[in-house]
Specification:
This protein is mainly α. About 85% of the residues lie in helices and about 0% in strands. Helix 1 (about 5-30) runs antiparallel to helix 2 and helix 1 (about 5-30) packs across helix 5 (about 135-155).
Length: about 180
């Protein structure tokens, strides 16, 4: 059994990983150890709006609620909620570095490694368990709820705008 909504979450993971790869590349190749603040700000906008505002909102506001009805899945949901909180703390460290005008390279690399591991765990373990553990009607409800959340948060062009801003900042950095 496969849910369209779960497939959409997997596709969003691919977008998130592409952004993290670019950010990680910028961090590793920063000549002076400092990622251009414009690129970091564009990445933070993406993280706040796309990752946390839409993707994590779908997971926390719909998926984890459905998972709570199944004992095994409920434990996974609890773990993932803690992961999301840890990710938010790592993002706060990036923001602090910018605010204090310190290099954000370390916090950026920490967040990128964290989110890559988190996504791998969701894709390889959690989503398969969800598709096996939840009924087809519940998966269909999740799909509908995910579309509602995405429409509320991202509308029709926010993702494109965020990715365009990131691309422009990345290119200005000489990538």
């Amino acid at each position: 059994m496969s849910g369209a909504g779960i497939d959409a979450l997997r596709a969003e993971h691919e977008t998130i990983l592409l952004v993290m790869d670019r950010l990680e590349d910028a961090a590793r190749s920063a000549a002076d150890g400092q990622i251009p603040p414009e690129l970091v700000r564009a990445a933070l906008d993406f993280i706040h709006i796309y990752v946390d505002g839409s993707h994590h909102a779908k997971e926390e506001g719909a998926l984890f609620v459905a998972m709570a009805e199944n004992r095994l899945l409920a434990r996974l949901a609890d773990t993932l909620t803690l992961d999301h909180d840890e990710g938010r703390m790592l993002v706060a460290a990036i923001e602090r570095a910018l605010l204090e005008e310190r290099p954000a390279t370390g916090p950026v690399l920490g967040y990128a490694a964290f989110i890559q591991h988190h996504i791998r765990r969701e894709n390889e373990m959690v989503f398969d368990a969800v598709e096996k553990g939840l009924s087809e009607p519940i998966l269909a409800e999740l799909d509908a709820r995910f579309r509602e959340i995405e429409s509320e948060v991202l509308g029709s062009d926010v993702t494109t705008r965020l990715l365009t801003q990131l691309d422009a900042a990345y290119e200005r950095d000489g990538r």
